[in-house]
Amino acid sequence: MAESKQLTTKQRQHLRALAHPLDPVVQIGRQGLTDGVVTELGHALRAHELVKVKVGSECPTPAAELGVQLGEAARAQLVQVIGRVVVVYRRREKNPKIELPQPTRRRRVKAAS
């Protein structure tokens, strides 16, 4: 199951850095988001946790809109959309490979008297 919390800026930045060298493992063509695409994305997320999806130029849905739909359909979190490439993340329940940076609490600085 996907994390219910939104990713923090630092976590998103960390995932973008990890995704940079990856190649797309799922492609979406002219039929757009189908059950088959969602199934394949689910398999890829179980295997890798962090996945790039290539949106073909013939796809009827814009990549930004498709990224949101992919996240919802695959119970994953949208990390980034660049051009026609969408990056999604879903943490494994058992043996997660990717360790996200923990959110830090800001300290209040007392004003000098």
Helix content: 25-40%
CATH topology, anyone? Answer: Translation Initiation Factor IF3
Order of helices and strands: HEHEHEE
| Uncertain parts | none
- The overall pLDDT average reads 89
CATH architecture annotation name = 2-Layer Sandwich
Q: Using DSSP, what is the number of strands?
A: 4
Question: How would you explain this protein's 3D organization?
Answer:
The chain has three helices and four strands. The chain has 113 residues and is an alpha+beta fold. The chain has one domain (9-89): YhbY-like (Translation Initiation Factor IF3, 2-Layer Sandwich), CATH 3.30.110.60. Strands 1-2-4-3 form a four-stranded mixed β-sheet, sandwiched between helices. β3 (77-82) and β4 (85-89) form a beta hairpin. The longest helix is centred in the middle third of the chain and has 14 residues, at 35-48. It is elongated, with a radius of gyration of 16 Å. 23% of the residues are buried.
Summary keywords:
single chain, 113 residues, alpha+beta, four-stranded mixed β-sheet
Short summary:
The chain has 113 residues and is α+β, with helices and mostly antiparallel strands. 32% of the residues lie in helices and 18% in strands. The mean pLDDT is 89.
Helix-strand layout with pairing:
Elements: H1 9-19, E1 26-28, H2 35-48, E2 50-55, H3 63-73, E3 77-82, E4 85-89
